[in-house]
Amino acid sequence: MKILAINGSPRANGNTAYALTYALSRFQELGVETKLIQLAELEIKPCGGCFHCIGHDCVHEDDMKQVEEAMRWCDGLVLGSPVYMGMVTGQMKTMMDRSVTLRVNGWQMSGKVGGGIACGGFRNGGQELTLQNMQTFFLQQDMVAVADGPHFSHSGAAVVGEAAKDPIGLQTIDNLVTKIVKTIGQ
Asked: SS3 string of the chain?
């Protein structure tokens, strides 16, 4: 089993990175192979909607190729984003848009499992809508979208404030990890 985590934060070592690293450590404890991509360290140009990618590579020559390779590699995908204006960051949305190449060239993410982690400043700080952005992305890629499940049952893992000091948020991450592993293993 292989899990890819993508950090959509513009801060490679911030709160969202902590939450994703925590999740990956839980996967590793279960014997799962993991990989982390930090979008803050990459140059990914925005999609222009030209659809040149149908049957071809994208017109942009940038770091999205390595993201696509990692997405093909994984069995499960965990997206992490801080809440920016109630949604995912621009970096995450740009990556999502550019991954259309995987959809229009054979539905390469179809059947893979996806889950999200959203980090916000307040308990009701936009995490649900941010997670729904991620859920929509998973569904558009024909992936199996999972949530953190009982007993919190968010649209994914929801972290408040400093992740290391949010036991409820960390529990939602634990729940999400368990749900992803169970779903892939079925």
From this structure: CEEEEEECCCCCCCHHHHHHHHHHHHHHHCCCEEEEEEHHHCCCCCCCCCCCCCCCCCCCCCCHHHHHHHHHHCCEEEEEEECECCECCHHHHHHHHHCHHHHHCCCCCCCCEEEEEEEECCCCCCHHHHHHHHHHHHHHCCCEECCCCCCCCCCCEEEECCHHHCHHHHHHHHHHHHHHHHHHHC
